[in-house]
Amino acid sequence: MATDTPSNDGLKNGQQGAREGLLGACSKLVAELSHPSETMLALLWSQPTHLSIIRTGVEMKLFRAMIDVEPAGETPTEIASKCEPQAEPLLVGRMLRHLAAMGTVRGTGPDTFAPTPTSNAFAEPAYEDSVLFIVDDFQPALNGMPSYFRQNGFKCPDSGVDCQFQHAFDCKGLHLFEYFQQRDPEMGRRFASVMEAWSKGRPRWFDSEYYPVKERLISGADNSAPFLVDVGGGTGHDIEGLKQAFGADIPGKLVLQDRHEIVELAQLDSSIEKMSHDFLTEQPVKGARAYYLHSIIQDWNDEVNSQILRAIVPAMKRGYSKILINDFVVPNQGAHWAQTCLDWELMASLGARHRTEAGHANKGTYVEYPDRFGATYAATLQAVYAGIPDYTVPTGVLRCYSRITRQNKELLVTIGIIAAAHCEGMLADLVVDMAESGAIDGLQTVVNTGKSVY
């Protein structure tokens, strides 16, 4: 294999990104070694069957029945007796054989099976809901994509109220989140569970390798002011994790905001305030150290995103408050399947998309800086600023580590918005609003070429 292939030594030593690197290398190796017919069989036979069995297993509480099975394993008859409702042993045995073939459970002997961390995860409510949402709620929208594109001339949708979701569920003019609220709150609850499950086992934004919370947020924070507002934060997995990570070091209040029916589901530390809020309306929590948006910008088009950000601006304290945006950016080459898959699903459900490094509107946004902030930073910034073709007010850089590309990046930070990612076409009005409201310190010029990034 190539010399730059990730090493197993890195995994043993706990090297950042080593596990992901080995997984990626294994996937590439399988793709290289597989015959086209084998790839077809995997895509069209084994994987759909696998998902069907997992969905059936959730229905009959198969994975819950296996949680307490000892490593030596149990027979289908023993496992079937613990399902809810009790299932035929023959059926359970046929299911378990395919689950074992796919690695979801472990075959320990002739007709004997034991759980794995994956099968145990499918016994958790968040994972059960995720299976229900993807298979029952969302798969119909994905299945109908060819028909949708035939009707619209094979063009990407640009509206969140007229994309494939609306065609699949006959709700044209009703946004996905409005559909949850008005027609199917249970689907909305399952969607919130998907977001919770998505965050499990993943590096968190507040990990020291990703964002320096102590240096950038806790240091200099006002104890009497709100500390962080998690805007559209679902059931609070991010803000609860932040609380657990920093505990008493957090100066000030933590606030979780989302739709009423979602925040009511959140089970949080009593010190975290739950607040119903529509992020298209003015932010009611004033003067917070940070306003955090995770997987929000990706869900909306540029016009709505400008409205979301403008709604926060009046609440910000000049020279103190920050907006933190946590989204994917799809690289020009070698994108991870999680990025490309979610990009397609965003298009189907929300008429939205992941932002990319490619394209004229993004040209020059990613800037390579020295590994450490130093004297060369100012000169480097001065040199690259003229090459950025969009609205920018450079105020600093953000160093981050990508768990997808396993590379360090230092991103341009503009107008005090700490952006873990960027979206084109959203900054112009925000810059003007922030300048007029006095939220930007030291604003000298805004370069206007008719496009915008942040």
Automatic annotation (TrEMBL):
One of the Pfam families matching this protein, by short name = Methyltransf_2
User: Keywords assigned by UniProt?
Assistant: Methyltransferase, S-adenosyl-L-methionine, Transferase
- Keyword Methyltransferase found: yes
* Record-level GO BP terms: methylation
Transmembrane keyword on record = no
Note the InterPro entries from the entry. Answer: COMT-like, COMT_C, SAM-dependent_MTases_sf, WH-like_DNA-bd_sf, WH_DNA-bd_sf
Any one Gene Ontology molecular-function term assigned to this protein's record: O-methyltransferase activity
O-methyltransferase C-terminal domain sequence ranges: 223-359
Q: This chain belongs to which protein, by name?
A: Uu.00g040360.m01.CDS01
Please give the organism: Anthostomella pinea
